[in-house]
Amino acid sequence: MLDAFEILTTSGIVLWRRSYAPVPSSVVNSLVGDVFIEDRRPKDAQGQQQTSYKKDKYTLKWTSAKDLGVVFVAVYQSLLHLSWVDNLLTAVKALFTKDYGIELKKAHVTKLNTQPFDATFDALVRKLDTGSTRRQSEADSEGPIELTPPSSAASASEEAVDEPPPPPIPAPQFKKPAVSRKEQFEGTSTDATPVPTPDTSRPSTPASHILTAKSGPGKASRRSRKAQHTLTSAPASSGDESSAGRNKKTATKAKRRWDADGFAVEGEDEVLDYSAAADSQQEQGEREVDVEDVNASQMGSRTGKGQFVLKDLDDEVDAILASSKQQVKPDSTEGDAGLLGSATSRLTGLFRNVVGGKTLTKQDLIQPLQQMQNHLLEKNVAREAAARLCASVEADLLNQRTANFTSIDSTIRESMSKALTRILTPTSSLDLLRDVTTTISPPNPRPYVISIVGVNGVGKSTNLSKIAYFLLQNQFRVLVVAGDTFRSGAVEQLRVHVRNLSELSRREDVGKIELFEKGYGKDAATVARDAVTYATNTAGTEGNGMLFDVVLIDTAGRRHNDTRLMSSLTKFGQLANPDKIFMVGEALVGTDSVAQARNFAKEFVDTKGKLRNNGVGMDGFIISKCDTVGDMVGTLVSMVHATGIPVVFLGVGQHYGDLRGLNVGWAVDKLMK
Amino acid sequence: MATSSPWLTWAFSPTISAILVTLVISLLLPVLVHSYLYRKATAQALPAFLLIGPSGAGKTSLLTLFANGTPSPTHTSQETQTATCQLPSSALASTDRYRSVNDHTHDQPQLLLIDTPGHGKLRHHALASLTPATALKGLIFVVDSAAVSSAAGLTETAEYLHDVLLVLQKKHTQSRTSKGSQGIAVLVAVNKQDLFTSLPVGLVRQRLEEEVARVRLTRSKGLLVDSGVGLTDDGEADDESNWLGQYGSKEFKFGHMEEYGVEIEVVGGNVKGEGEEKGRVDGWWGWIGENL
Ligand SMILES: Nc1nc2c(ncn2[C@@H]2O[C@H](COP(=O)(O)OP(=O)(O)OP(=O)(O)O)[C@@H](O)[C@H]2O)c(=O)[nH]1
Ligand SMILES: [Mg+2]
């Protein structure tokens, strides 16, 4: 069963909601944060974007009406597998936008009178809720499919929604005519459909007894059995039972629809006749009870007319779902309205393009977006990231109207700038100095540990020295750890850096720096741990009782596809447990920095097997050699896009002082130039 | 033709009356056009107030409360939202101060509220609407007084507040060099006072001031971010313009910002009450009324 359904605007206002069980607000909030804002959507095995999101014990599915800025979210427990939710979302979206679209388009709308939507939603749920999970129902429904004649079986698979396998038995019984009528219009199966109808759904026929017997255990089938029980043995008396009551309401409503159908379509009489004949006296009595029931309860104000509305709704929902299914298959069915017509429309299109106020279609966007993508590729943005960015811009702009006096190109540029800004801006800004200060000050002071990782030759040691210099400038005491116990010369290289830096700091009278090394061949993780212990050493020191404030660990460069060396990073991460892990990557064109970043990030799992830093692995990138690439700073985007890890520093030169924070506006400007 | 020709003849004839009529028309036309355009322009521009603050502070809730009278349930915002609201009769607009209490001839003034998303990645929306010469009457910085009791919450709030104030300060210093600048009023709306875990207004103010001072200090020591690659950093001048408040001062007080035309007031309240209780927002309405 659904736990909640919410309709909210992109500005965060809940326009309408229905909750069946209390769902903490944080669940939907994190959907918005993770999926809509940070675009960190879980990928499934095929690398396809998933359309559901899991948080705590809940699964969330959503759909959005971009042009109106409305998002539809369904929340249910992950234990269930509610496949009908997709249909519910589609239907709710179509109906809600139809009812409230015009109002929503107005400026300054912060509230809608969505009271009338309650009834619509209830009706939708009643119609679409197959009550069971898809997997179970598929197993369950083997029975009925065997029993039904071929044409009906075909319709069942075609219109999976309208033919909810076993559960609330009366519902399919009365829904069937609607399906068959539609099929008659479509001309797929005309005369065969009405006949099998009773066979599949008739609760009193022997066939459906088999059906029930065949259904497996589980809530749904239990309910269906109960429903059936109500219908066959004690229909009139059990009206007070809630689940049965629910079913009956559907039944009554549907009966009205039959009348209407009878008027509308010939050949339907057959069905009507049949049901009338088959109606036992018991059911007759039940119908009377139902009418009272309906009048007394929710239906209250919605008398005769209201029921017709609901009937229309049923047809409409079928149409909506059918069309949404069709949309998936063929994409563009462009009708050409003659040569003259197309010429004029193209002219006005051109005019609109300049003046603005044009509603953007897929055709309009394809070419400029392709240009934009090429532009990004020229800026050294990875193809994958460029494609994704363009897709998000397309989704953002499709069916939107361009502003007055704005061309499509500039609209796209603006949207792309926004997308780039969003991707590059870190969710929470890194203030290293503050972090260090907080960590080393009471109540429980300890040294702040930073480690630097990366492939061979990207400038790990250089950037480590730059960070050390920056920290020294701020009066911190820094211990540099030679964690590269592998490549010969690595320790010596660091020693040179440390000597330079300590000379500099002595001259400028700032912090102090020292090298911690255990030679070659030792396990890096152990060396790192020892270094931290050494830095924490309290013997003979003043101040906060530690020898050093910050421990900077250099690590061996490793090829990101060298699994043996890479996996040792996991142990390193767990043993040294750094506060921050930064990865150094190059801004240079043609490096496979994205693959590197991915492979490094996935090594940093904690002991519970969860990725560090909220599931992204590392805390930041240092992009080196930015001074050599000019405008082609696309690597920044590719790396952030691939991993969700922010860029924190840029290396911009050969000097110790050549380290910069990332200015997002600057980077976006360069990329869009 | 027959009817219009005598008129034309008259209009082009050198009689006094023709000259007078032409004169009147030529003098009145610009005035009429101007007044027409002017009225159209002023009718649209409502006094605007910007809602700003970290995520979850209650900006959107506040907006819906002010616009509709009751707060709607909300989730994290992704986009800005505008709404028009009317000053409640309990709050007097500054222009109406000398009006008699019993004078009901006059409608309460309308105003425009602009809500911005507070998520870290989306703050540029808010900061962007600050920089151009938007005719903002005031800025409402919403603070979650329960969240600021934790170190992380306090830091986040103070960092955002610091950035916003710095933008305002820069805007002021820039406009001072070009033309006469107007100050801007800032309300620090200490929200969620109904919560058990919330801090009292005075304490929130004090903590924010201290924390902003700390943020300012580390920002000044942090790495340069502005210049990016290959640009020369022009040392001192840059430092000074990136320093919030009096350059080099140790303490930070909201009062210091008055020098830069930013008047800060801290007022407590809550959008929602416990259970059925209504929120307490009179103080904020009062501030809005004063700054209309
Ligand atoms: N107890 C209490 N809760 C409040 C109050 N004001 C807001 N809230 C709750 O705080 C939560 C966040 O409020 P929002 O208005 O969505 O926050 P926001 O500032 O718009 O957040 P973003 O849109 O993410 O920037 C909501 O669940 C509100 O119900 C208040 O005065 N008291
Ligand atoms: Mg909001």
Automatic annotation (TrEMBL), chain A:
Residues 646-659 form the SRP54-type proteins GTP-binding domain. The keyword Phosphoprotein does not apply. Keywords: Endoplasmic reticulum, GTP-binding, Membrane, Nucleotide-binding, Receptor. SMART domains: AAA (SM00382), SRP54 (SM00962), SRP54_N (SM00963). SUPFAM superfamilies: Domain of the SRP/SRP receptor G-proteins (SSF47364), P-loop containing nucleoside triphosphate hydrolases (SSF52540), SNARE-like (SSF64356). It comes from the Eukaryota. Signal peptide: none annotated. Residues 186-207, 229-245 have a biased composition (Polar residues). Gene3D superfamilies: 3.30.450.60, P-loop containing nucleotide triphosphate hydrolases (3.40.50.300), Signal recognition particle SRP54, nucleotide-binding domain (1.20.120.140). InterPro entries: AAA+_ATPase, Longin-like_dom_sf, P-loop_NTPase, Sig_recog_particle_rcpt_asu_N, Signal_recog_particl_SRP54_hlx, SRP/SRP_N, SRP54_GTPase_dom, SRP54_N_sf. The keyword Ligase does not apply. One of its GO terms (biological process) is SRP-dependent cotranslational protein targeting to membrane. Residues 246-256 have a biased composition (Basic residues). It is a peripheral membrane protein. Heterodimer of an alpha and a beta chain. This is Signal recognition particle receptor subunit alpha homolog. It comes from Oleoguttula mirabilis.
